Amino acid sequence: MRKPRWRAHLPYAVVLALLLPPALGVPWWLEYEDMSDRGIIPPEATPVSGDTARLAGSEWEYVGAVTEDLEPTPGTREVAVVFRVTPEDEVASDRLYSRCAFRAVDDRGRTWDPTVPSQPVPDDVATASGTRCAAPSGFDPMPAGEETPLAVTFEVPEEVASDLRFEVEVATHDPEIDHDMSTEDALAELEEYAEGQRDEENGYDPDFEENPPEPEAVSFPYREPEGG
User: Fold this and answer.
1) Strands (E), the chain
2) What's the CATH fold of domain 47-175+215-228?
3) pLDDT tens digits, residue range 33-47?
4) Model-wide pTM > 0.85
5) Where in the chain is the domain with CATH 2.60.40?
6) Which residue of 29, 98, 114, 167 pairs with 45 in a disulfide if CB–CB is 3.0 to 4.6 A?
7) Is 40 or 1 the better-scoring residue by pLDDT?
């Protein structure tokens, strides 16, 4: 069965809105497993004690985290986390473009998603954008075999800033991404796919995608950059 191409072209909320209704009659354990495989439920992150980790065919170097003096809202601080990411080939690059997500987690299990940085970043530095990691332009996959600096910004309570761990989640499937597909074409393909799902008994087809993403995740502890 042809794998959907629209994943890399549509906002998460649009995808969820179209796919959630057919799943309402699914047994909860099948729905949980399916949502976990597709990254809707974050996978358990493997702690990394050093500065580097290999994830879904890409090398991740953790440069460090800095708590800015800026107070976006009373009682909060902005934390900037910097990585250097090197996808080994085009498949790894497309995996990052298909799904690449970040979370900040404290020791109580509370989580924070990335926010827009308050200060501009250099043109050659990529930033977290939704659930994908792209080149600094924001429109293309990261170049294979090349190191790309990546900055991720979180707004967190002041008292937890230095006690956080930063989770990185990447898809591990081999995505079929048509980078020339327009948003309109992607939406039309998703609607066609969702309609086919509704025609299945109980709205659930366990074989609708032969190679699900099954994302993996690692986490890095808060650490100031060396020499910082």
Assistant:
1) 46-47, 52-55, 58-67, 76-87, 100-105, 111-112, 126-127, 148-157, 165-170, 216-221
2) Immunoglobulin-like (2.60.40)
3) 455 445 456 678 999
4) no
5) 47-175+215-228
6) 167
7) 40
